[in-house]
Design brief:
Length: 118
């Protein structure tokens, strides 16, 4: 049997046609899948900027709320600490006032005495 006769026998057999049909079916499905994937990719690419902006806006809003909450919390802490510090300063100034008053009186007295001598 020659090669031509064997090739003709193989190409006319049912298994050959089944295999060729399976290959054609696979290519058809692959093209359809590629088309579907391409359509979905194009849709996602069109919607992506809008979705990304939506996500960015949501994240910005959350960070802004967190920032405002932290600032409010910080103000409360500073107020509390400042209030305590103000009370401490008041207590210190109340105990220091007599000594300051005496020093001021002494300085004023000396200044008058110096002025009187001139």
């Amino acid at each position: 049997m020659t090669i031509t006769t064997q090739a003709k026998k193989i190409t006319e057999s049912k298994p050959f046609y089944a295999l060729t049909g399976a290959g054609d079916f696979a290519v058809e499905k692959a093209r359809a899948y590629a088309s579907t994937v391409q359509d979905k990719a194009e849709t996602v690419a069109r919607e992506l900027p809008e979705k990304a902006k939506g996500y960015a806006d949501a994240a910005t809003a959350r960070f802004t709320r967190l920032y405002d909450d932290l600032a409010s919390r910080g103000r409360k802490v500073v107020s509390r600490v400042s209030g305590e510090a103000a009370l401490e300063l008041t207590e210190v100034s109340e105990t220091a006032e007599p000594a300051i008053a005496e020093t001021t009186t002494k300085r004023t007295g000396r200044a008058r005495a110096t002025t009187a001598r001139s």
